[in-house]
Design a protein that fits this description.
4-stranded antiparallel sheet, 8-stranded parallel sheet, 39% helix, TIM Barrel, 18 helices
Length: 493
Amino acid sequence: MTARGSGILMHISSLPSPYGIGTFGKEAYYFVDFLKKAGQKYWQILPLGPTGYGDSPYQSFSSFAGNPYFIDFDLLSEEGLLEEEEYKNISFGSCVDRVDYEKIFKNKIPILRIAFERGKVKYQSNIKKFQEENKIWIEDYALYMAVKGYFGLRSWREWEDEEIKLRKPKALEYYRNILREEIDFWIFLQYIFFKQWQNVKKYANEKGIFIIGDIPIYVAEDSADTWANSEIFLLDDTKTPIKVSGCPPDAFSRTGQLWGNPIYNWKEIEKREFKWWIDRIRGNYKLYDMIRIDHFRGFESYWEIPYGDPTAEKGQWVQGPGMKLFKALQAELGDLPIIAEDLGYLTESVIQLRKDTGYPGMKVLQFAFDAREESDYLPHNYDQNCIVYTGTHDNDTVCGWFSTAAKTDVDYAIQYLKLTKEEGYNWGFIRGAWSSVGNIAIAQMQDFLGLGSKARMNLPSTIGGNWEWRVRKEQLTLALADKILQLTKLYGR
């Protein structure tokens, strides 16, 4: 069982930086120092994978690779790979507290190409060693990105050459030859990404702070995972998905949620002794100390929808791998510090699966205050083996929730948590999480800052305006760190 502690949820992209998006540079180290001063044990982040359309870290080009947007220019300059004038006066966005992903994409990658030209020979032997250590994914990923660029950034299913789309041996050899330099560029970026991130993680660990990472259960259709491992997904002979992912209709969505990710072919994965999943989890533990697995209930049973359906209404529940997968993971990797994202409607069998794994589930305080009924998310219903959140990246901020929730629910929260305007509703909400019996309590950085809905990280089922919020450097004050520390000491975290 995990020792009692607390932490802050804030993604790398949300760190301060003069270059349009948070990076692995000095501000990442300053934030670790802030966490230490605030008495925190955990820094929770979102998936670190490379992002594409919609900018969602949950729709990545790879389950193994890292996002090159997080590579820090100043660190590259210190290594002699960039000159300051090559990046200092370029616009990466006009707003210091929002990410402009279009400008990052247009202006950051060309600068990283300059670093590649200077670094490819300098780090040749290091890159070769890195490539060997990551051979199960790195070459497929780099080839994927190179071919994707060759075909105008289109998803692999829209590539004009059917032979490379279907990974015919001659086509693979042909594109490896004509795109060798481009492939080397994408491998170089991964070498730099992992080097910079491992240094941040090492610094955090030395300060007694552990990184909680996040992995989506599904992978994106537009990904090296699906292209290079198509046999483990439900695809037909033309590599078109047969079924896709989503959620059934419920009180929140009349037609359900159509996510559209390819569905796993669990029979084939089991036949292969869950190797791809074992490799994926092992790879993620190079990045994180603890992992939150998104949509855990999908391992017990999942909602699959016929490909091409406009909504999720005509889907069906299908049995997942259950404990077979987790026994295989344990046999290969030992006991793993995993958080099961067990939110939403849960059947007895899903609850039993989580209990059988022993993984802590999640309690989100914002879900507790439905004035119409008793909720499992109320703190007096918790057991110790859970992770308590004021809200996740998919929730509104606490202050935003108080502005938009039903008045009866708000009144219920005020009464239950004994909230006062003098203390601040956001601080009272955090107190509710910190004072609970749950082993770990986590709050978003936005909640400590008392920010409203404009600082929300993501509004599910929408595209545009998400994943953009950033903290300002001047907001991370010593006074705030001390206030968090006092609360953390008070409740023994």
